[in-house]
Amino acid sequence: MKQYTGVPARLASFLIVSLLVSSCAVTVRQPIVYTQPANHVYEIDLRHCEAFAREATSSDPTALDGAVNGGIGGALIGAALGAMVGGMLGMPGRGAAWGTALGAGRGFIDGAAVNAAELDRRQKTAVITCLRAEGYSDATY
To answer: Would the pTM count as exceeding 0.85?
Structure first.
């Protein structure tokens, strides 16, 4: 079996490790409600409000915009830093190429993660607003 030890194999290994390190655990939190309106079933109202929140934010391009902007910003910063380091080693072009690739990948992931968190915040706000409209006046996260 042939072992791959060249530049593409190292880049793939670096990207996989980078993805694993940057991933985070996700915990699902339910809204807290202390009082329940008469003739209401909380679970049904909650599912209704969650569906409303998904629908209200379904066309929100927040995460994709963050990924694209993060990728562009990461590529620019990575190219500049890579060219500087590559210049010190006598290979500015190669350094800029590596910096662009790594910076774009990392910027894409980070930008998507940050904006996905913003999208999650918007959905939670929509759920709470809906629950309050259903009569759960003290609903919160």
So the answer is: no
Q: Concatenate the DSSP letters of all residues of 60-122 into one string.
A: --HHHHHHHHHHHHHHHHHHHHHHHHHHHTT-HHHHHHHHHHHHHHHHHHHHHHHHHHHHHHH
Q: What is the CA radius of gyration of the chain?
A: 23
pLDDT tens digits, residue range 19-68?
A: 555 555 455 677 878 777 888 888 899 999 999 998 888 776 666 677 78
Rounded (10°) angle between helices 92-133 and 62-88: 160
- Per-residue model confidence (pLDDT) at position 21: 52
* 114 close to 22: Cβ distance less than 8 angstroms: no
Rounded-to-integer distance, Cα 103 and Cα 62, Å: 20
Domain boundaries, the chain: 7-133
